[in-house]
Design a protein that fits this description.
about 550 residues; OB fold (Dihydrolipoamide Acetyltransferase, E2P); Rossmann fold; elongated
């Protein structure tokens, strides 16, 4: 149950004045929620701040700095053709030109009435020996000056939202912020120089110094510490809930695992064998398994996951392997299916593509227990998916799934064991910090014959060198991926970037370039991937 003191923070964002249906949608995109809440906005922190405290006379202005100036409007000079609109202003020490491009004259005359005083804030430049301010950030009268923030936070934005929209909404949201009881030790607070949580959050949205919002500030550190501590407590509660009552013993006879190993075109590495032994021991114990399998791309995590699934299938139960995207899911299925069938495992796939009678048949066989191993996307944990007796859930690239999604999958069965996989190298201490008290298996060695991986970071300023290098590679018969990763908060922008990159590469390499992205029809994606496997084209610009 949520304490009533928190209820105002979980109200929908449109309870704030000025946020109607038109702004609610872009705020949802910005905050990553279909129905954004007040608390989501409060945790949308600024990344920098503009210092508007400098208020010199014109004779004391330093060019290329931000200043807030008191000036009197002397004259308007509308531009002709493409010339800018100029407003001549002054104080008792000098003159300032205020320049605008493509702004209606009526609006500017209303903003700057001749003979009246205005306060303008923005960056000052020196142009042809004259002080000039182009498109001031702020133009206010004396009353507006009292409301002008001396230090102004700068927020990440998205299409449809101006900086002022977010600033005003955040200021309004701060009114909803209650003073919460302190949950940290006073001696610890004093040692770290931490302010109360609410004070730290207010200082982030209403900084008194530009340094207040920087990563090293004590205010951001306080919020980060609270986030980390709450995350750890949540993980502890989740782990306690998952392990309450212990686990179910899944002791197989090894027969299916032997068939899989015999069907492998290579020998298992020592690291794979050790990881499998640890996992099998966990499954056979009366303790619920929570294990992280960590290994670089090509280290053989998928085979280890299949052997883990085989162990519970030998015990008469079911396993599920979940991946974050359809392409990755189908890659897993294509690799696993021949080995699974060679060992007599009934395997199936479930993604958003499977529909109609095909989907219904899969769900029926899953519910009856006829399907022993299911490979799928997030479609697996939908309510309509019922397992006969799920024993093991394997989650690949687990950082792409939230805790509630992992729990939704493990709740598909009784005391389901959990194996999560990642290709990201994570130190043991960080695993404990971020994922909680999780057992870890590492695949440090790679199967024989794997080529060494050469990883390099190159700036965008050298993009032409990268393109030339790729061109030389494909001329020699090699193939290449050019991945434009999509980030949830800016999916439309990054999708456009992927398509733009595809168009650029196609101009350079012609029909040898293909495109794979999530908005293509399934048939088009399949054709592109099949063409790539068949070496036509030799280049893909994919969305993972």
């Amino acid at each position: 149950m949520r304490p009533p003191i928190l209820n105002p923070l979980f109200a929908r964002l449109n309870v704030l004045s000025g946020i109607g249906p038109k702004l609610l949608k872009p705020f949802g995109v910005l905050l990553g929620r279909d129905e954004p809440r007040v608390i989501d906005l409060l945790f949308h922190l600024p990344y920098s701040a503009v210092d508007r405290r400098a208020r010199p006379k014109l004779k004391d202005v330093v060019p290329d700095t931000i200043a807030t100036l008191e000036v009197t409007t002397d004259k308007h000079q509308p531009g002709r053709g493409r010339a800018p609109y100029r407003i001549l202003t002054s104080d008792d020490t000098g003159t300032l030109e205020i320049v605008y491009f493509n702004v209606p004259r009526e609006r500017l005359e209303k903003m700057f009435p001749v003979g009246e005083t205005r306060y303008v804030s923005g960056r000052i430049a020196l142009y042809d020996g004259r002080l000039q301010m182009t498109h001031p950030d702020r133009v206010v009268d004396e009353k507006g000056l009292t409301q002008l923030a001396a230090v102004e936070p700068v927020y990440p934005l998205t299409e449809g939202l101006a900086a002022g929209n977010v600033r005003r909404a955040a200021t309004s949201a701060l009114v909803k912020l209650p003073d919460l009881p302190e949950w940290l030790d006073q001696a610890f607070l004093q040692r770290k120089q931490f302010q109360p949580f609410a004070t730290a959050l207010r200082r982030m949205h209403a900084p008194q110094e530009p340094s207040d919002v920087l990563p090293e500030s004590v205010f951001r550190a306080r919020l980060a510490y609270d986030e980390l501590l709450s995350h750890q407590l949540a993980l502890a509660l989740v782990r306690g809930q998952m392990q309450r009552g212990g686990g179910r013993k899944n002791r197989g006879d090894g027969s299916i695992r032997k068939k899989i190993e015999a069907a492998l075109p290579f020998s298992l590495t020592g690291a794979q064998q050790m990881a499998i032994q640890d996992i099998v021991a966990d499954l056979a114990s009366d303790r619920r398994m929570l294990r992280l399998l960590q290994g670089d791309v090509g280290s053989g995590k998928t085979v280890v996951a299949l052997m883990a699934a085989a162990a519970v299938i030998e015990a008469g139960r079911q396993a599920a392997i979940m991946a974050p995207t359809e392409i990755l899911t189908r890659q897993h299925f294509d690799r696993i299916a021949p080995l699974a069938r060679a060992a007599g495992i009934h395997i199936a796939i479930l993604t958003g593509r499977e529909r109609g009678r095909e989907r219904e048949k899969t769900l029926e066989q899953l519910n009856s227990g006829e399907i022993s191993l299911l490979v799928g996307t997030h479609a697996i944990f939908q309510e309509s998916v019922d397992f006969h007796d799920l024993a093991l859930a394997v989650i690949d690239e687990q950082h792409r799934f939230g805790v509630h999604q992992r729990l939704a999958l493990t709740e598909k069965g009784e005391t389901v064991d959990l194996l999560v996989m990642t290709a990201t190298p994570i130190p043991r201490t960080l695993v404990l910090t971020f994922f909680g008290d999780m057992d870890v298996s590492e695949l440090r060695s790679k199967p024989a014959g794997r080529q060494p991986i050469d990883t390099r970071t190159i700036s965008l300023g050298r993009i032409e060198e990268v393109v030339e290098a790729v061109g030389r590679a494909i001329q020699s018969g090699a193939r290449a991926y050019w991945i434009c990763p999509l980030i949830e908060e800016s999916e439309l922008i990054d999708l456009a970037a992927a398509e733009e990159r595809f168009g650029f590469l196609k101009q350079r390499f012609g029909k040898r370039v293909g495109l794979v992205q999530g908005r293509l029809k399934a048939r088009e994606r399949d054709e592109a991937m099949e063409s790539f496997v068949a070496e036509r084209p030799k280049f893909l610009s994919p969305r993972p």
